Amino acid sequence: NIFHSLIRMNKICSFAKPSRLASKLQARSISIGVNPVIDGLAASATLSMNEQMKNLQDAGKTVYKFGFGQSPFPVPDIMQADMTKNVFQKDYLPVQGFPKLREGVANYYGKKTGTDISADQVMLGPGSKELMYILQLVHESEHMVLPAPSWVSYAPQALICGKKVTWINTKFEDKWKINPDHFDEELTKLGKSSKIMILNPPSNPTGAVYNTEELKTLAKLCQKHDVLVLSDEIYQELTFSGAEYDTIWKYHPEGTVITNGISKWLGAGGWRFGYMILPKNMSHILVNMRKMASETYSAVSAPVTYGTIPAYLGSPEIDEYTRKARLALKRVSDYMVPKMQEAGIKVHHPDGGFYVFADYGETPKAKILREAYPKTKTDLCLSDWGFSKMLQESGVAVLSSSHFGRSPSELTARIAFVDFNGKDALDAVDKMSENEFLDKVAHKCVKGTELMVDWWKSTSIQFISLISILIKRSSKK
Known about the structure:
The protein is an alpha/beta fold and 477 residues long. 46% of the residues lie in helices and 11% in strands. The protein has 19 helices and twelve strands. 43% of the residues are buried.
């Protein structure tokens, strides 16, 4: 393009032939390389799964979408109305965020946690995901410590920022929560190096919440080993009734940062709004995060900001919306979990959010899959291959745990129980009995659960066993 532009310039200037500079540019090749860190990252597991689902749907097959974690609920009317009224807002807002909304977030979380939080401690951003990334760029830490399993984007962000990722393995018996003794051992191995850890209650992918005593124990260990905690509380408002909600912010106050937003709680993933709350002793981190923000995204969208204000100033409509969303999600999970447990799938009831983390390793199908796994016939690990087979044969899509930091030889996966119409759910959850709600609103979750359970118990067992025999025979040849 540069060369041709120069040619045109030469013609305008009445030159008979290209200049020497243009000739050199034509001959010189431009090196277009890719950052090896980025190039080494795996492709998005969600995008790959979506492609498989689309191919099946194009072939006329019904797909049950238990793999993609997006809120099914519409954005509350009061927020939509305020955003619409402010669609004319076109000016840049302050880099740290609109003061009125920062004040609202500070008051909201101050009351929630019983702690003193000022607007100066709050930073708004285009999604909490972006703020997490900027924090990691700014904070001088060598290691990112993550429970296994953890959300799929935590580790890639850390790797992009040049940090070493240390996984803390968890067990089904502990509800996939960090065991304090094991945690202490792993942190001791890291020595005096600077560390940051992410907790995510309720967890994506497990739905687990840490109770007060568990948080106090973890807080003491983080203080002992000088660990900065990033408490990602994006699902916090979806904690179910009966589950105890608390935050490590209260017990590790000088070493905890909170992130949250409206993507999961209020169904506004596409609005891209989130926030971060930092302790007062980390004002220097906040100053440098502002610098990063000013040189990248500049500010949060003005209409989105104005539309979000009602969520944090207190509103009966928002309170009622939240109550109904929690109830609808709990009804669906209360149906799915026992059905899975009856089939020999190891899974806990979630404390909140819209995920469960299931271990299929002791089901009849698991043994057959391990025997049939074509080690020399696919680039997929056992976990990805097994759940890809389930999608192809049953139409049920889940997300393999290999993308959440678990072993690729495990048959564990995240299940998102949100394959229903969220507006219908909010309208019906108080009017219908549990059974009627499941039949008329959450029927795809019901049917998908039945198909998944049947597949792990018996579907295609003879067919897969035949594949196994053929593979073994061919390998002998």
